[in-house]
Amino acid sequence: MALTPCRTVARSKMTDRRVADRYRLLAPLGEGGMGTVWRARDEVLGRDVAVKQLEPPEDVPPDEHAVLRERAWREARALAMLEHPGVITVHDVVQVDGDPWIVMELVDGRSLAQVIEADGPLPPRRVAEIGLRLLEALACVHERGLLHRDVKPSNVLLAADGRVVLTDFGLVVMDGDPALTRTGALVGSAGFIAPERLRDEPYGPPSDLWSLGATLYAAVEGRGPFDRDETVASLGAVLTEDAPRPRRSGPLGPVLGHLLVKDPAARIGTEEAMAALRRVAAGGRSGLSRPGPSRVRRAVRIGGPALVGAVALAVAAPILVDGADRPGGVPATPRAAPKSAPLTACSLLTDAEARSLAAGAVRRPDTPLKGQCSWLARDVPAEIVVYVPRQAESADAARKRMAVRRNEMISGFTGGGSPITLTWEDAGVDKMKAVSTEPRVVTGVGDEAVVHGYRGTSHPIDMVTVLMRKDDVMVEVTFQARRDGPVAPEEGARRAASMIAAAIARRGRPS
Q1: Using CA atoms, how far apart are residues 306 and 463, in angstroms rounded to an integer?
Q2: Which of 156, 164, 198, 246 is most buried by its number of CB atoms within 10 A?
Q3: How far apart, in Å, do the first and last CA atoms of the chain sit?
Q4: Catalytic pick from 48, 150, 168, 472?
Q5: Contact (CB, 8 A) for 49 and 104
Q6: What's the pTM value of the predicted model, to 2 decimals?
Q7: Which residue positions form the known binding site?
Q8: Where is 236: in which H helix or E strand?
Q9: For position 61, which CATH number holds?
């Protein structure tokens, strides 16, 4: 048996910035939206380490900063529970200004994403070897009651000593931990989030295996199975499309197919996947047949009365952290809501409130879609449309329904900047050119809300929709008007949604 030579570790160039009077920061290894990973020198032990700094943007509210801080502590605690050559090792945690800095081993190597970008697709046998090592690491993670939730090529390190190391446990979930909610965050990376998580359904270890399948697919094909030009398109593809049949995978293909099965109950398990990968890594066949096509859910579009013919109103949004922190083993705590008679769209916004948003607004006697109510101000011009789907039995059921509705609509979203044609007959506008706007989170409206719209390019008219949930009621509020009018379209939609949320909150209170 050959001995592994002991390498001399070169000392890095020093700088003046220290953490905890021990770790001297040398250079950033990687930066993200919420922090930086530094190469640092441990001046006590005389070795280089990796230090992960929590560094959210300045405009992050204090409550969201607190969530991010708790996530960092959760990551450190999770890594401390794990001892496996395929999992990054944590050495220390120090606290600076209330934020944890995680000190980890420094792995000499490149990420799988860097390797793919620089060298192109990897041979199937090599990918099978990588997959086997990652499966062994994930088995250790799952045995400790943890879920990684962010398996992707950039979180896999290929070390110079041959190790395959799973890194970045920032989204890890511990069984029994309380759910952490940060409004507006995307939990995971588009194209690598398992479909059951996008549908806000219970999930567990099979979700990590699905992400592993997408990672190995990217390694052997050179791009992920659901890579698209825009985030919402990738998310929609995960929900509604099967992965394209790989062309370079050879005997690895059936393993990828079974890992990427959309139904987690039908997805291949860890032991069976390990056995198949071992066979492929040894130069043989996987022993698996290719799975059949999935029964996928198709996108849904909702028609709005203010738009005619050329386009239907489609609402899509980033996947919110609300609900995504609750795997199968961590029960959600439903928010209590008073029992009441089903609400109607016309009861949620008064005529006076509608006129405060659009002078002279009159309620339409005709509503082309059940559950809708609309007000038209011809002189402004402006139109307000309120749509209430079937009321849920509880706030938790409404939250799940909203997540499913939002995510299933993603593939129907035309994408930021995509040209469309709108017609607004009441304003005398025919075939108005417009582009769709990027969906984003709205804070301070109901319990959760997202906004999406269309911006006119041939006319100064915008159509903005807020999809909002308050307690057990989900509502879509659309405001269509001129951008230079008395009330801007997005402001009108948000104000109307806030009025409706207040009306829902007043249910059951004495007048």
Answers
A1: 9
A2: 156
A3: 84
A4: 150
A5: yes
A6: 0.61
A7: 52
A8: helix 231-240
A9: 3.30.200.20
Model confidence pLDDT, tens digit, residues 461-486: 999 999 888 988 889 899 999 999 99
Measured distance CA(298)–CA(323) in Å, rounded: 22
Q: Is 150 a catalytic residue?
A: yes
Please state, in angstroms and rounded to a whole number, the distance separating the CA atoms of residues 56 and 232: 24
Residues annotated as binding site for ATP? 52
Q: What is the DSSP string of 423-482?
A: EEGGGTEEEEEEEE---EE--SSSSEEEEEEEEESSSSEEEEEEEEEETTEEEEEEEEEE
Which residues of the chain register pLDDT less than 70? 1-16, 32-33, 59, 174-188, 294-342, 366-370, 390-392, 404-419, 508-511
Is residue 297 a part of any domain in this protein? no
- Cα(221)–Cα(211) distance, rounded to whole angstroms? 15
Q: Count up the domains in the chain and report the number.
A: 3
- The 10 Å Cβ neighbour count of residue 199 is 18
Give the β-pairing of 429-436 and 419-424. Answer: antiparallel
CB atoms within 10 A of CB 292: 9
Bridge partners, residue 161, by sequence: none
- What is the bridge-based pairing of β-strands 23-32 and 35-42? antiparallel
Q: Quick one: residue 145, left, alpha or beta (phi over 0 = left, psi -120 to 50 = alpha)?
A: left
Q: Are residues 385 and 351 in the same domain?
A: yes
Helices (H) and strands (E) in the chain, counts: 12, 20
Pairing of strands 23-32, 18-19: antiparallel
